[in-house]
Design a protein that fits this description.
The protein starts with a strand and ends with a strand. The chain is mainly beta. About 0% of the residues lie in helices and about 40% in strands. The structure holds FE2/S2 (inorganic) cluster (FES).
Length: about 110
């Protein structure tokens, strides 16, 4: 398994990007006691989502937001709720948390 980081390295709520993981560019979000991992690719145009390094959330830190045209995605399942790709979704990346560390699943 490929280690991404310690879970506590991600703010809660907050997000962190990993540009060169074995699954390509991915990012993790900590929210509500859980960790979610998605491919860093907007379903609209395939661009990276973050506004600045490690900044994938909207101002309220309740949704994932694409920096390009502002599409908003649910943290829990990546579904797009608003913007040009409504009804589409981010690609979830299988992952495991073990002993406080976050890994990509094999
Ligand atoms: S590229 Fe993400 S909303 Fe357009």
């Amino acid at each position: 398994m490929h280690k991404l980081c310690a879970v506590e390295d991600i703010a809660e709520p907050g997000s962190k990007g990993f540009d060169s993981s074995p699954k390509g560019s991915v990012f993790a979000v900590r929210f509500d006691g859980q960790v979610f991992v998605y491919a860093n690719s907007c379903p609209h145009l395939g661009v990276n989502l973050e506004w600045q390094p490690d900044q994938f959330l909207d101002q309220e830190e309740r949704l994932i937001q694409c920096c390009m045209h502002g599409a908003l995605f649910k943290i829990e399942d990546g579904e797009c709720l608003a913007g040009p790709c409504v009804g589409d979704a981010l690609t979830a990346i299988p992952h495991v948390v073990e002993n406080g560390e976050l890994f990509l699943a094999d």
